[in-house]
Design goal:
Blueprint lengths: L1 H14 L1 H16 L1 H9 L4 H32 L1 H12 L3 H18 L14 H28 L1 H10 L4 H43 L4 H11 L5 H17 L3 H27 L7 H15 L1 H21 L7 H19 L22
């Protein structure tokens, strides 16, 4: 039954990608900006207005990111033919290994037949036609994302109360309330810490690329900060991008590898030294679980799944931690255990008590003498 349930869950995620991916991404962003909405509501702002302020703030952040990306990216698109020519010249030095690979392929064809070779077939249709077909779907996903983000921020308390009202006992209600609290606290802390860290990585990468003389340092810094939200995979993509840009712009291998090494040092310092200090040991996850979660969600939902992978792992950790706690979570039992342990420690550490004193012998008052 568990296996069938897991298969059904995976099939449902794959089939509902168009609907579930933007909604889940909106919930993750809502948990990230939840403290901002709480701060506004603590100062007397109504939930509907605080949710609108957070959505506008997020749109402003996206606009700044687009501005940082747009101009340098357009310059690199204009230089694409020149870069391709330089890359082709650099790859000519690898002509010998490529010819050896071609000879190996010919040997495979002679052994197994001509059907072994990989054939590439170019279909009709250009990028403009593809964009025309994709535009309505992308627009619908964007609208669904912003609508889900707004209504999640505006109705968080109502969602919590509705879920708690379904709990039949006080103990289950207490556990579910703590699950909500831990999910909001851990995911918000993790994402805000990751955002601050990635901003620092982006700034440090931009400064380093400017010092090294790389063109468009702001573009590489913004890309490094954005890709750093996807652990391991984002860093690998950024290393590959810097290596390819170095091949197309630098004349020697020292100039090609130096930006890659500097970015690797910045990212290693941020992930292994700074980030554990920000989030603490409580939010430190197993790297293997993080890698498996990223691989699963990217396989399910593509790039959006990469951003959802680590928050979903934190949510799962909080839920499992309360379903299968390492120790009892009942407040009354914890209080009784603490009192019992304190009493036992006091009895062990105390010396032998002295024998009790005898009760005092009552003394009769003398009879009153009449005057």
């Amino acid at each position: 039954m568990l296996l069938l349930g897991a298969v059904a869950f995976i099939v449902a995620l794959q089939a509902g990608k168009v609907l579930l991916a933007p909604v889940c991404f909106a919930i993750v962003i809502g948990l990230m900006f939840g403290p901002v909405a709480d701060w506004l509501e603590g100062h007397g702002v109504r939930p509907a207005l605080s949710a609108a302020v957070v959505v506008v703030l997020f749109i402003g952040i996206l606009s700044v990111a687009v501005i940082l990306f747009a101009r340098p990216l357009s310059e690199w698109v204009a230089r694409a033919p020149e870069l391709w020519e330089r890359l082709r010249q650099q790859l000519m030095t690898m002509k010998g290994p490529l010819e050896a690979l071609a000879g190996f392929q010919e040997q495979l064809q002679s052994i197994f037949g001509k059907g072994t070779a990989v054939e590439v077939q170019v279909l009709d249709g250009g990028p403009v036609q593809d964009m025309a077909f994709m535009a309505p779907s992308v627009l619908a996903d964007v609208l669904l994302f912003f609508a889900s983000l707004y209504f999640f921020l505006a109705t968080r308390e109502q969602i919590r109360v509705s879920v708690l009202s379904l709990c039949v006992s006080r103990r289950i209600r207490w556990r579910v309330a703590h699950v909500f609290r831990d999910i909001e606290a851990q995911v918000s802390r993790f994402l805000l810490s990751a955002a601050c860290l990635n901003l620092g990585v982006g700034v440090a990468t931009s400064i380093a690329m400017w010092v090294l003389g790389m063109p468009s340092p702001l573009l590489w810094g913004a890309m490094a900060g954005l890709l750093n939200f996807i652990p391991y995979v984002g860093q690998a993509v950024m290393l590959a991008v810097l290596f390819m840009v170095g091949l197309g712009t630098e004349p020697n291998m020292v100039g090609v590898l130096l930006p890659v090494a500097v970015y690797a040092a910045i990212n290693l310092t941020a992930d292994q030294v700074v980030f554990p200090l920000l989030v603490g040991k409580a939010l430190t996850l197993n790297p293997l679980l993080i890698l498996l979660s990223i691989a699963f969600w990217i396989w399910m939902w593509g790039p959006v799944g990469g951003f959802v992978a680590v928050p979903s792992l934190l949510v799962l950790q909080s839920v499992v931690g309360h379903i299968l706690p390492g120790r009892s979570v009942s407040p009354r039992r914890i209080r009784r255990n603490v009192i019992r342990a304190a009493t036992q420690d006091a009895e062990i550490s105390a010396p032998n008590p002295p024998p009790p004193l005898p009760d005092p012998v009552p003394q009769h008052e003398p009879p009153a003498v009449a005057n």
